[in-house]
Amino acid sequence: MIDLRSDTVTNPTTKMREAMYNAVVGDDVYGDDPTVNELEEYAAKLVGKEAALFVPSGTFGNQVSLLTHCNRGDEVILGDDCHIVQHEVGSSSVIAGVQLRTLTSNKGILDVEEIKSKIREDDLHYPKTGLICVENAHSNGRVIPIEVLKEIYSVAKNHDIPIHLDGARLFNAAAALDVEAKEITGYCDSVMFCLSKGLCAPVGSIVAGTKTFIDKARKNRKLMGGGLRQSGILAAAGLVALKDMTKRLHIDHENAKNLAAKLNDLDNIQVFLEDTHINMVFFKITKDIDYDDIISYYNKKDIKVNGPENGIMRFVTNNDVSEKDVDYIVECTNEYLNK
């Protein structure tokens, strides 16, 4: 099957499986797992932070960060289309007990002046602005310029407010901008990035920040049920993800751009070419179709896709999707639209 639903659907590589089999492990809750310790040290260095923490998932990483930065009742400023708002099940209210103050996002870019206007003054009636969250690469497929992150960071520092970066696809953003990841993470106080999105690890994400922040987050990870035991088996795959798989993301980007261009050449399809910055292709079908029928059709052609969200389809390239697969996907799509 060619699976275009996400870049989380990949199989671990042979090297990952071998590393997992041979991993030296211990009890990570006691701090005794050498492979987890190696992963956390390597990950922290990679993003220019003092310390890092291995967590089960991206949502877990974002939420443990909110819980660690904020007090209950604090307000978090973030974009109305970001992952924390749209796709994390309202967990910010359940876990951290915070209020989200959403700003109108211009395809992932937040207006600095609007951020300034939404920072709460010290008033009896107001919640405290406890955190500002940004996302890069954005889940809409776009990469946010470093200059924008720098401006937001400057505003946050002037008001003594921390910045958390949802960097689920941080290394896609770095590849698209042709910079090291630490050049992006230099403008945040904490960052979460996934090992299982685009990097082929079967499980896990990383949260990084100051040592004080990570010490507190480690206790909150335990509170949230994320204290794992012999998790070096998983961390071993994460090390391969960071050392090897980050270096091939440009291939997924090239395949996505190729897929976007070829789909856009078909009748009855409008591809949002301006949003194809990384490995995601967003498009809408301008012809009246039954989406359940096209999903079934793709499945019969050994292609897995998700249905539309607000009328927009998304195809995601990944390590298991080749250049040859791209041509086959376009051929099948054209066949369906012209039947």
Automatic annotation (TrEMBL):
Ranges for domain Aromatic amino acid beta-eliminating lyase/threonine aldolase: 3-284
EC category name: lyase
The UniProt record lists the keyword Lyase: yes
BP GO annotations: glycine biosynthetic process; L-threonine catabolic process
Cellular compartments per GO CC: cytosol
GO MF annotation list: L-allo-threonine aldolase activity
Modified residues (N6-(pyridoxal phosphate)lysine): 197
Pfam families registered for this protein in UniProt: Beta_elim_lyase
Cofactor(s) this protein cannot do without: pyridoxal 5'-phosphate
EC numbers on record: 4.1.2.48
Family annotation (InterPro entries): ArAA_b-elim_lyase/Thr_aldolase (IPR001597), Low_specificity_L-TA-like (IPR023603), PyrdxlP-dep_Trfase (IPR015424), PyrdxlP-dep_Trfase_major (IPR015421), PyrdxlP-dep_Trfase_small (IPR015422)
Keywords for the protein's UniProt record, in alphabetical order: Lyase, Pyridoxal phosphate
Assigned protein family: Belongs to the threonine aldolase family.
This protein's name: Low-specificity L-threonine aldolase
Lineage per the UniProt record: Bacteria, Bacillati, Bacillota, Clostridia, Lachnospirales
Gene it is expressed from: ltaE
